[in-house]
Amino acid sequence: MNVNTYKNLLDAVDAGKKAVMVTRMDDGDCKSKSSYNKTLLIEDSFSSDNCIHNFDEIVYQKAKDSLETGTLQLVKVSEKETYLIEPYFPEPRLIILGGGHIAKPLVEFGARAGFAVTVIDDRPAFANTARFPDAEKVICESFEKCFDLINLNKSAFVVTVTRGHRHDIDCLRQVLKYKTAYVGMIGSKRRVKGVMEQLLSEGYSEEKLNNVNSPIGLEIGAVTPDEIAFSIIAQVIKYRRLIDANSGSIKTLKANWPEFDRDVLMELCKEESSQKAIVTIISSKGSVPRKAGAKMLVYPHGEILGSIGGGCSEGAVINNARFLLRDGGYQIQTVDMTGEVAEQEGMVCGGIMDVIIEPFCK
Prior knowledge:
The protein is α/β, with parallel strands linked by helices and 362 residues long. The chain folds into two domains: 5-89 and 257-360, no CATH class; 93-241, Rossmann fold. 32% of the residues lie in helices and 23% in strands. The protein is built from eleven helices and 14 strands. A five-stranded parallel beta sheet has the order 7-6-5-8-9, sandwiched between helices. The chain has a five-stranded antiparallel beta sheet with strand order 12-11-10-14-13. Strands 2-1-4-3 form a four-stranded antiparallel beta sheet, sandwiched between helices. The longest helix has 17 residues, at 225-241.
């Protein structure tokens, strides 16, 4: 397998595509080049003959299931053949067009709900990191030109809360060119009606305009900026969890959203040959700091990148990862955070995680 597997993974996810990484777990040492045992499957390649013939039917079907449900799976085909199947979903991105009074709580609520938030405004006083410390990106640019600076795709949830009718129209003209997970625009019924009539007269289809959530947000009688932001983020979450971005209909399967550690994946993209172990949470029960898909890298001398939750239990995993790098193979470890174990280690959580530790080198 190409050493750029993880780079290809990040490229696919950043393009708004779902993907699955299938790893054939190797009992040998790191000299077996564990990165070569990884196969990346991107959502639009699942129906290809090459994809079908590359795997046992069970593994292929489990990979398809992971892509649909977001559930990480460990599949034992035989005594000597085990596969780790990891789904990767694009990071949900909340794009907020306009940096006014509603944008401030909306950024905070969006970030807390797990969205990577981008705010755009054409006024320096409203587009700065001091005003929006929870935003991943703050862009000061005109609403006509800003779309060259963002990558709108099926993982983007676009909220238009600009300061005026003209800017709303400028934004919608651009947004409607893309297939996004959600589009919403603030405004009174009169103001919204005027925008829609203008765009209809310019040739935009009624079908596309009907997909714009406007007036924006769930109807909860919101009045204050915080309340309006609550109603908007609630509607955005509804589209994230329940609405199919392709058809606009209710999803038949409620997908998990696996954890996504970009820093760890970027480290795995590097061409350098340093030995390391990948620790991945494969399942969890109860109250735990992190869920399935969360990753941590462990290096031979105990340095780490990322976290699976911290605490003494993480320390035990780090020690086991160091031994595995020396002895080879892979290991599944249970991390118990319940009852007396949690109390003794000062944990406020009370659950159990299973993690898999695998060597990775190039």
